[in-house]
Amino acid sequence: MIWRQKQTLFRYICLMGIKSVIMAALLVVSHFGEASSIESIDSIKTKLPQQKNTERYSSLIKLSESYRTISFYECINYGEEAIDLAESLKNDTLQALALKSLGNSCYYLGELDLARDYYRKALTYYSAQNHLQGQANCLNNLGLVFDETSDFDSARYYYQMSYDLEKLIGNEIGMGTALIQLGNVFYYINDFQSALDHYYQAMLIFKEIGDNELLARCYNSLGIIYRAFNQQEKSLEYYTKAIAILEATGDERSLSQVLNNAGEIYNFDLKDYKKALNLYEQSLKLKEKLNDKLGIALLNNNMGTLYANMENFNAAIKYFYKSIKQYKDLQSETGLVMALYNTGSLYLQKVKIDSAILYLSDGLNMAKKNNYVDYVSLCQESLMHCYAYSGNIEEYNKYFNAYILSKDSLIQTLHLLQSQQTETKYRIEEINREAEVLAQLNREKEEDLHAYKLLLIGMGAFVFLLVLVYALFNKKRKPA
Q1: In Å, how far from its chain's centre is CA 324?
Q2: 91, 226, 307, 327: which has the highest count of C-beta atoms within 10 A?
Q3: Radius of gyration over alpha carbons of the chain, in Å?
Q4: Over 79-136, what HEC string results?
């Protein structure tokens, strides 16, 4: 039986940029860092009554962001108070910042409609001020929202606009981030070659500027693509590189993602269930600590697939049900299709045909609606087996004729060749960049050497002139 896991990429890649008294942060991470401790919250609250204007505004934003993992009501309440204060101060920049911060909180907590509304309002303020970095950040975050709701055309549109602005600004980190997001979209629509191309472009940028944390996130994306190409060893190689960096930097959010993705390989490909369970539990612990609701829904699905592979039906169905409920609450259709398919497949495995047909049909309808080609094919194949079990020849023929094999060996071979060609292309580009740097250093050394030679020649000429003058002077002083 084929169980499916949504190989989520890094949707939390954040950019930091401070101008004047504001921050220009992307999703989740803010100028003030992760959520404060209870002691810090109490300390901020104690000072709040004596604070005014921008000082009070900063405290309100800190409180709003600190409550992300504690209380949604308090998070929104303090954020809206910051917006009202910025409006009373007639400061559009601060108002845009507060709106974007609330958009981040809502996205992070799975309130996607609210997140989209806050981002659009923030974008309006940034556009009125011609604040290009603020616009680029909001465009990126809108892309994340549409990405999560499976509107990939809109997601690609916003990511591309973000990339264009980052390029105009000359922000290499922003350009690399947008390239990863665009790669994610191509990954979700099964255009793995375009995804790989964008990830390698991002990797070259992050290597060139020496940003290891973003490079780790890029390694994670490459690990996902190479697993799609059935190159598990290469995939684990990239995951291992990412984990080492993220453990050193303490980026728990990104680390939880990579641990989950590595767990998939041990669960599905290597059948090392003990290792997979260990990785999943580490990831789930981090996601619960961070109150990452989308991540928790994903891990519940993944734990379900693990127990299904271990043939523990009761544990598997419990986790799948939890995942379905969470994805419905979060309005994440990408995740919901996956969980519906997995639940239907589990019932099919147990020959509970009516239940299997119910979940698989729902999954198929949603997959068709969102053009998830992979899941359309998988659901059709499973429904074909359902009707074969039940003896319904008419329905069996219907799904048999509709079913298209999605993992044809010829296509896999083509994907492998294309991935190798892309890797070679970007390795050559990387070597060329390194060679250009060395050539530039050599040119600078040659220029220094040439200047030094000229200096020596000049000094030699000067010494010769002194000797000549001295000789002439002494000659004139000799008696006749």
Answers
A1: 23
A2: 327
A3: 29
A4: HHHHHHHHHHCCCHHHHHHHHHHHHHHHHHCCCHHHHHHHHHHHHHHHHHCCCHHHHH
* Helices 72-88 & 53-66 angle (0-180, nearest 10): 160
> Helix (H, G, I), strand (E, B), or coil: what is residue 23?
strand
Task: Return the CATH fold of 8-210.
Answer: 1.25.40
Q: Answer for the pair 266, 275: CB distance below 8 angstroms, yes or no.
A: yes
- Alpha helices in 293-403, H assignment, sequence order: 293-309, 313-330, 333-349, 353-370, 373-390, 393-402
Q: How far apart are CA 203 and CA 269, in angstroms?
A: 26
DSSP label at 191?
-
Fold of 292-405: 1.25.40
Dihedral of CA atoms 442, 446, 448, 449 in degrees, nearest 10, equals 130
Domain boundaries, the chain: 8-210, 292-405
Q: What angle do CA 203, 207, 212 make, to 5 degrees?
A: 95
The rounded average pLDDT for each run of 10 residues, N- to C-terminus, in the chain (480 residues) is: 48 26 33 49 89 92 88 91 94 94 90 95 96 96 92 96 97 96 92 93 95 94 92 96 96 95 95 97 95 93 96 96 95 92 95 96 93 86 93 90 56 53 59 62 63 57 51 44
Tokens (6 digits) for 274: 């003990």
Both tokens assigned to 322: 């939890």
Report the predicted TM-score, pTM, of the whole model to 2 decimal places. 0.63
**At a CB cut-off of 8 Å and minimum separation 6, what does 336 contact?**
324, 327, 328, 366
